[in-house]
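Run log, item B.
One chain of 148 residues. Sequence copied directly from the ordering sheet:
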Amino acid sequence: MNLRRATKKSEDLKTLIAIEESVAGSEIYSAMTTEEEWTKELTKSTVYIIENNGVAVGNIEYEMQGKDFACLCGFAIVPDFQGQGIGGEALAKVLDELKNVSRIELATHPKNSRAIMLYLSYGFSIESWKDNYYGDGEPRIIMSKTNK
């Protein structure tokens, strides 16, 4: 498993859209499926394409929202590659990159039990519930992790 920093190049935008489209259509994930969304995201966030044996199998991203605060704002694994430990490896690498950040926060759907269990296993705790978090009519659980 390898994390490759995504760029605004057309190939990376197409890869990110394909990954997101693979998980779109579910109430538990609010996918970004346009080049405009990704171009904006790449301007403000650190975005990685998750590769396994040279194949793009997911993406993970975070945005620094201050010197000591980061938001894990996107994380998707193509369904055919879920349940193989790839997501956990990617999360561990990003968390290591953020080890000097005091607080890391994320939002996930309350029905996404697989993600919730993964985040709990990496030291996140459930903090709150927010209705209509992304404006898609679906609630999200806010989870956080503190370092130090």
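Observations after the first pass:
- The first helix runs from residue 10 to 23.
- The mean pLDDT is 93.
Flagged for discussion on Thursday.
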